[in-house]
Specification:
The protein is an all-alpha fold. Helix content is 77%, strand content 0%. The longest helix has 41 residues, at 94-134.
Length: 482
């Protein structure tokens, strides 16, 4: 046995199949979110042909009808988040993600035909069905991540995966505007991501795997590295623990986390859905300029996401910052900075375009820290049920995505009236403040006893203090195996 073999297993290959799985998760999130967000820009072109390509049909929609259409995917997501989390935790995420991505792509392709055939009501129904399908995606992503991600790589891999949301949002704004203004017209905003999603499905079916043991492409060294790194917090191989519903629904750390995520969803979904409307109503830019300005904050958000990933890696590995301090500090920045930025936005002059865009950039860029600050906390609390926990909290987040545009549709009857937008932004700032305050007080970053077989309870932690270090145990395991 060589020194190199020991090193490979102890540290894991620098580039392996686990990295490919994370790349798949990132691109899946990007494509699904892109197909959700493209309507936020396309609806401007659909209702105002002169703003994009006048060669394509225009449809008259009221502000209330626009609100219903924009919220439709979130109506659907509310109904399937929990199911996605449950089935992915019990059966694995591979086939569920395949079905979700394929159905989402095909529905995206038929979306332009729906408004031509049945008006805004059929468009609402089609987007509602698409939301039903999309709902199971995020729980599947977290379930899959928990099966492939060693604890010490969790911040890095989880952060990269969740940046798919940022990338999809930025592309949804920018690409939709560019395509709508192109000779292909606004229908291409739905065709292009739909067809790309179908291609993703074919690659995923070939190279995706529910776990390292099921992948035909993984090396033996990488498989043992991942399995040994996860065995203390996951159920033993071949065992599927029963879902501890009562413990989950009465767990204070999880309930606080769920409320915190819902408060953050109120701000993020409002910004995702309403920024194009806000810019169009206040500044009256053309569709392509609107799309670029709407996308700019989310491009900055994507870049700042990687800053938070590297920062978390540095603080935990080089400075040994405890995980609770890391999560709560970053989450406070990611919640309270947007609150301050949105309050500032309400008092910026109508003529101050630069000031308004800077406030939007500050609000959206700070939100990128929520992935490290709180989203990965689902895996901290219960690796065996990470997808299910995220399914529950994301159901509440989707509910915020449903309620937000409906309330804004009632509160903002005139898009060009800044005073109407002010009440919306101030309310969101207050919700963000309360949500993070509760997370600071009651949030926890340790595996809960109800996780099932293998949690790090106080007894196991005491026993672990007298056991060999993980690296030593890993090396001994590798030696014995051979």
């Amino acid at each position: 046995m060589t020194i190199t073999s020991f090193s490979l297993v102890t540290k894991g290959p620098a580039l392996g199949i686990r990295h490919l799985q994370v790349l798949f998760l990132f691109t899946c999130a990007t494509l699904v979110v892109l197909q959700r967000m493209n309507l936020s820009v396309a609806i401007v072109a659909i209702t105002n042909a002169n703003s994009s390509n006048p060669d394509y049909p225009e449809y008259q929609l009221t502000e209330q009808q626009k609100s219903y259409i924009l919220s439709s995917t979130f109506w659907g997501s509310c109904c399937t988040q929990l199911l996605g989390g449950y089935f992915s935790s019990r059966c694995g995420a591979k086939m569920l993600l395949f079905v979700i991505s394929l159905a989402t792509g095909l529905i995206s392709v038929v979306t332009p035909f729906s408004i031509a055939w049945g008006g805004w009501k059929l468009l609402f129904v089609v987007r509602l069905i698409q939301g039903l399908v999309m709902g199971g995606m995020w729980p599947c992503l977290y379930t899959h991540l928990a099966k492939w991600c060693p604890k010490k790589e969790q911040n890095r891999f989880g952060g990269i995966m969740t940046t798919g949301l940022d990338c999809g949002t930025a592309l949804g704004f920018a690409l939709s505007g560019v395509l709508a203004a192109s000779p292909l017209g606004w229908p291409s905003s739905f065709y292009v991501p739909g067809y790309i999603g179908v291609v993703w499905c074919l690659l995923w079916l070939r190279y995706g795997a529910n776990s390292p043991s099921e992948s035909p492409f993984i090396s033996l060294a990488e498989r043992k590295y991942i399995e040994l790194a996860l065995e203390q917090s996951h159920a033993p191989k071949g065992q599927t623990p029963a879902v501890p519903w009562r413990h989950i629904l009465t767990s204070r750390p999880f309930l606080v986390l769920a409320f915190c995520k819902m408060s953050q969803a109120c701000s993020f979904y409002t910004l995702m859905q309403q920024v194009p409307r806000y810019i169009h109503g206040i500044f009256r830019y053309s569709i392509w300029m609107n799309a670029l300005l709407s996308a700019l904050p989310f491009v900055i958000m994507l870049l700042s996401s990687y800053f938070f990933i590297f920062l978390a890696e540095y603080l935990t590995r080089r400075r040994n910052i405890p995980l609770p301090i890391l999560r709560k500090t970053i989450n406070s920045y990611a919640s309270w900075t947007p609150a301050i930025a949105l309050m500032s936005l309400t008092y910026v002059s109508d003529q101050n375009v630069v000031g308004s865009i800077c406030c939007l950039i500050a609000a959206v860029a700070a939100i990128s820290g929520q992935a490290i600050g709180s989203s990965l906390n689902h895996v901290d609390l219960a690796p065996n049920f990470a997808g299910l926990l995220f399914g529950i909290s994301n159901t509440l987040m989707s509910a915020a995505g449903v309620i937000s545009p409906l309330i804004i549709g009632l509160a903002v009857s005139d898009e060009s009236d800044r005073t109407q937008w002010r009440s919306v932004f101030l309310a969101i700032a207050a919700i963000l403040f309360v949500g993070n305050l509760l997370y600071l007080i009651f949030g926890r970053m340790m595996v809960q006893p109800w996780n099932g077989p293998g949690p790090k309870t106080a007894e196991t932690q005491t026993a672990a203090a007298h056991s060999p270090a993980p690296e030593e145990a890993l090396s001994m395991e590798k030696f014995t195996y051979f």
